[in-house]
Input
Amino acid sequence: MTKKLKLIALSSAASMIALSAAAQDPVSLTVVSWGGAYTESQQRAYHEPYMAANPHVTIINDDGSANALAGLRAQSQAGNVTWDLVDMLPSDAQLACDEGIILEIDHDAMLAPAPDGTPASEDFLPGSLGDCFIPQIVYSTILAVRPGAFEGEQPDSIADLFDLENFPGKRALQDRPGTNLEWALYADGVAPEDIYDVLATPEGVDRAFAKLDTIKDEIIFWTEGAQAPQLLADGEVAFATGYNGRMFNAIEVEGMDAAIVWDGQIVEWDGWVVPAGGPNVDAVMDYLRFATDTQRLADQAKFISYGPARASSAALVGQHADLGIDMAPHMPTAPANYYSPIVLDNDFWADYGDELRERFANWMLQ
Output
């Protein structure tokens, strides 16, 4: 081929590439998550690499996950679905799935296999996948303590959260029944493995609320994940419940003086659901295949101390991207931390969640 023909061929190839890129219409995806350090970890591990590889896609973050189920119901009922992808808890995802307001997922067809070819359904950790749910992380809700709040002996158990005599001061608790009811029973002497059997009875529910009554006058309720560490940092509370990754970020990245109590940590999954009737389903599915592959889930652990939901990702978790510290000891599943876990029962919350949320909301107002 002559030099002139080579130049013509190269020019034609470049034109074809340009035309192909131009043919991809711009897509804007609204991704709903929890805000703060968690959304930032998603932005850096998932969104930015995906947008770099797909310049026609723009991802817009919406910090609405605290009210995701209500939001999905409202949009579905109005026939105006504006969310493209939602980060959601498994129990709420199961309710939304049962109601038909999110899409069912064929995990092996829609998600990437592990690097060695293991199908997604076998690579995601046992029990983590749902009919409409794709997990990203294993995380825990933990108790954090402000050391300066107490002289001498420091709190080191969930029972101490309920001990106003030895550890007085304000407590910051999330404004939902999950975690609070489990911890109330645990502090009242119920073994972790028996908590849901007890909580499934009217007497058990009454017992949990009675235990919460003992500290009610000292409770400040929080809604958004970023509020709990902020209440600690500002000295407004002595204790705060919160997500382990948020507390890690506040302590290790922002330098907050606080200590994590791993006793009774509530271990659960968090992940994605796709709203039924969303405006960009095809683009969302392409993003999901990328964002839930082995490397991307391992990458998120570089920015926040949540464990990846795929077995093949574990070996790829290393140092924090900015701090250079080993992330393994900060994971909720690290042996030194996983000594008395309470594994959240999503089936229980799918069955009893609406009833208990209503009772808890009324209790907060009493």
